[in-house]
């Protein structure tokens, strides 16, 4: 588990953003927030940064709601308005039209810019066309790219990591930080973005055989909601990953989901291992689960006092940081490897 008590929050005046929420344009694209979505996940799938997504939707926090519609801007960069700036100078500097800046930011006027205001500047490739953002070409193995993120008021390594679906330890490492370091508003930090290509499965009943540390933890990050299907009975229930680093510490989403889990395990919760398929963000991943409630809980109205464990290929036990052979055998069954 991660500890956040030592992280210090910094207070600052929030920068006013004049750009309004875009509603229509020739290249407008929107997505509807689904259960388990975070700004980091949505930004990753649409090949933009969290900062660009927040600017395009006039968001001042990382909170989003299921069913909420978010505007996805075309390829762009973020520009901070300085003293003496006018739109024509900014447009000329980046080789785009004034109208393209007005469109992407839905500016009510071309006259009034605020010092410190942030604008999305479309790339030259999209400024004069209807071209949509193109996905990154697929590769055979998981790969990582670092994007820049500007620290906002109240950001901590923990909140930034959660918003982008990565472990806090990874965020600290890639930025050369320790738990005693401060983050400053406006500071630029690196965010690792993990690209996980789809892998072949044995058949329709089986899941992808994905390593926890290289792939599965990024597809099923903390706060993500997934559907779990018991491999033997085919009964399904919904869960939320609420914590966990070496494997997924998971909780039933509702009391109804708890009842299904209890029924699958024969009427009582148990440490016995069962092969399962975890469905999240359109992927089906081979996994293994026990149903015994233990330790910390975050969901308090699901009739489940604590959390349960879901293991994936290569994940580790908390008690000794070793691989659990029973879980790994069950994962092979869910992947069709035995």
TrEMBL record:
Entry annotated with the keyword Signal: yes
GO MF, one example: hydrolase activity
Listed PROSITE patterns: LYSM
Keyword Signal: yes
CDD domains in the record: LysM
Keywords: Hydrolase, Signal
Residues of the signal peptide: 1-28
Listed Pfam families: LysM
Domain of life: Bacteria
LysM domain residues: 29-72, 77-121, 147-191
This protein's name: Glycosyl hydrolase
């Amino acid at each position: 588990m991660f500890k956040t008590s030592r992280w210090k929050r910094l207070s600052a005046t929030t920068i006013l953003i004049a750009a309004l929420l875009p509603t229509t344009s020739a290249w407008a694209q929107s997505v509807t927030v689904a259960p388990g979505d975070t700004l980091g996940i949505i930004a990753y799938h649409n090949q933009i940064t969290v900062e660009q997504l927040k600017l395009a939707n006039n968001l001042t926090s990382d909170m989003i709601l299921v069913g909420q519609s978010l505007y996805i801007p075309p390829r762009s960069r973020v520009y901070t308005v300085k003293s003496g700036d006018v739109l024509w100078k900014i447009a000329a500097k980046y080789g785009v039209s004034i109208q393209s800046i007005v469109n992407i930011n839905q500016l009510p006027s071309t006259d009034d810019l605020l010092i410190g205001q942030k604008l999305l500047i479309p790339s030259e490739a999209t400024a004069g066309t209807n071209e949509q953002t193109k996905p990154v070409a697929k590769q055979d193995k998981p790969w990582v790219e670092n994007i820049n993120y500007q620290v906002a008021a109240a950001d901590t390594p923990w909140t930034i990591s959660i918003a982008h679906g990565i472990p806090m330890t990874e965020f600290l490492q890639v930025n050369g930080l320790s738990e005693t370091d401060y983050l400053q508003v406006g500071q630029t930090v690196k965010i690792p973005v993990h690209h996980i290509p789809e892998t072949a499965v044995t058949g329709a009943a089986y899941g992808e055989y994905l390593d926890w540390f290289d792939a599965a933890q990024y597809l099923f990050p903390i706060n993500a909601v997934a559907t779990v299907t018991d491999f033997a009975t085919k009964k399904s229930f919904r869960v939320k990953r609420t914590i966990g680093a070496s494997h997924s510490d998971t909780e039933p989403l509702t009391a109804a989901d708890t009842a299904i889990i209890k029924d699958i395990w024969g009427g009582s919760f148990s440490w016995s291992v069962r092969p399962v398929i975890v469905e999240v963000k359109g992927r089906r991943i081979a996994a293994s689960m026990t149903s015994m409630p233990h330790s910390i809980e975050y969901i308090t109205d699901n009739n489940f006092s604590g959390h349960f464990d879901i293991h994936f290929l290569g994940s580790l036990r908390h008690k000794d940081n070793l691989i659990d052979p029973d879980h790994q055998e069950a994962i092979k069954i869910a992947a069709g490897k035995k």
